[in-house]
Amino acid sequence: MKDSNFLKEHNARHLWHPMAHPAEILAQPPRIIVAAEGVRIRDVDGHEAVDAVGGLWNVNLGFSCQPVKEAIARQLARLPYYSTFRGTTNDTVIELSVALRDFFAPDGLSRAFFTSGGSDSVEVALRLARQYHKIRGEAGRVKFLSLKKGYHGTHTGGASVNGNANFRAPYEPLLPGCHHIPAPYPYRNPFGESDPARLAQLCAAALEDEIAFQGANTIAAFIMEPILGAGGVIVPHESFVPMVREICDRHGILLILDEVITAFGRTGAWTGARLWGVRPDMACTAKAITNGFFPFGAVMIADHVAELFESDRSGAASIGTGYTYSGHPVGAAAGLACLAEMQRLDVARNAAARGRQLFAGVQALQARHELIGDVRGGHGLMVALELVSDRATKAPPPKGVTATIQEEAWRAGAMVRVSGANIILSPPLVVTEADVDTILGALEAGFSAV
Is the model's pTM score more than 0.90? Predict the structure, then answer.
């Protein structure tokens, strides 16, 4: 590794960072992380902190997961790459497809289409949804519905169904035929409704209304996150996703759950589908599938969707999408090791327990600090604090406050994520009670500094 002077001199000068303004990154170069162990990361100056971001929602098993590292090394030594395009495959990805079939069996998902990550998985799911209806003879079903505040990656299709203008406006015009309904977000919604159950009904009614307006026979799929992650950990009422499932069934619309964040235990349930008791037609996965150690993802496909494709004899079901790294054997080896280790450690159980501790802790913070207008979570290790300058008006926080809190929390021993007015917490699912106490103590130090 180059020395710290070299790294600091060249920081952000030759590298454009995702989700950031190049000029701002040049003016305030990012923190340089050089090492990690367990749930802790270390910067170039030797400062260590608990990673309350979990890499980027993906390092569920922590940074020292030796079984995954060893599986990657063994695969690199034996077969570092081969394509899964027509005519060839590899043994490791076949084994992973069976393991995923078993893991997702309670969700009714039995086939896997492998990708390079979450954005890829969303893109493939949207394409397969349109193709599904074409095979069925309903070629007019090409539109997509989704939630405002939802996040579905950065490809053109994903950006088109995204519900946040920051990921859309600079790149418009996007995919036509994508329409959004209000999110079940009790703290801010167009209905002025704070009761989660009543809000769920109003959002479901808005979905019904949009379907009637667009015409059900024009809509291919509805896509949503079981819990909205990047939008600020927006947790729908338990009635909402089952209502969406029923509405989609009634109108012949596919339900795609974007489980890129929520699959593999993050919510305290093994999947978001299981959390809410529904079976999707497709689920998008990535992130924790390899613990962040290799870029990899999978679209999981329901039996009835798969059977339609597999029984086609017209040629309409020939899949014309894929990636050079689809089914990469090294990613597949990492996925197999991750599945085994997640289940051995029962990380969903720990996520539920530590999530209750973390959520109670941020609720206590809210009682002490007027800056915190809303706290959201309560299902596993997904928590957000929304900051305001005035609780009555819910006005945005003063400029620079979130950055100050983030910096002070880092000094006090925890890396937290800032997204707009939100501070988002998504630590590895192997955090201990003491780790969560460290995160909460660091947040207290951050809020006490402003």
Answer: yes
